Amino acid sequence: MTKKLIILSKTLIIFIFFALCNNFCFSQNITSQNSFWEKVRFGGGIGLGFTNGGFNGSISPSAIYDVNTYFSAGVGLSVNYAKYDANKFLAYGGSIVTFYNPIPLLQLSAEIEQLRVNESNALFENDYWSPALFLGAGYRSNNVTFGIRYDVLYDDNKSIYANAWMPFVRVYF
């Protein structure tokens, strides 16, 4: 698990590096102090996952900063609920999100999420931390993106998500 986490962390760092390089190539001059807030958008996403005997739902409000027309980055909060057979999970935490739009209709994303998980069933209760690294792609139209993301750190025994693949809808204003 540790080698996998190191490799995935390096992959995310490389993704962010190239996105930032793109930012410096295409960025515009800031003309006023208020221009920062003009580039901040609020919104977030919802997610649903289904498998045999399982369900996962999440809501993730966030704020992003549009560095330029290609790259955005921000922070978010997340609340997740999952139920698999007799097991119930409630998870809450935060995330760092990055979006890259190579063309207007396509949005690529990377998100690091750290959740505190409260797990319970009839026999026990358990609290632990659960990391996730999502890589995703979606169709973007104006303020809305529909897509799918994959948790590369997915662990069958610890993850709150029903499986590693999760469809999403993001909306930012």
Automatic annotation (TrEMBL):
What Gene3D superfamilies does the database record attribute to this sequence?
Outer membrane protein transport protein (OMPP1/FadL/TodX)
Superkingdom is Bacteria
This protein is called what?
Answer: Alpha-ketoglutarate decarboxylase
Organism classification: Bacteria, Pseudomonadati, Bacteroidota, Flavobacteriia, Flavobacteriales
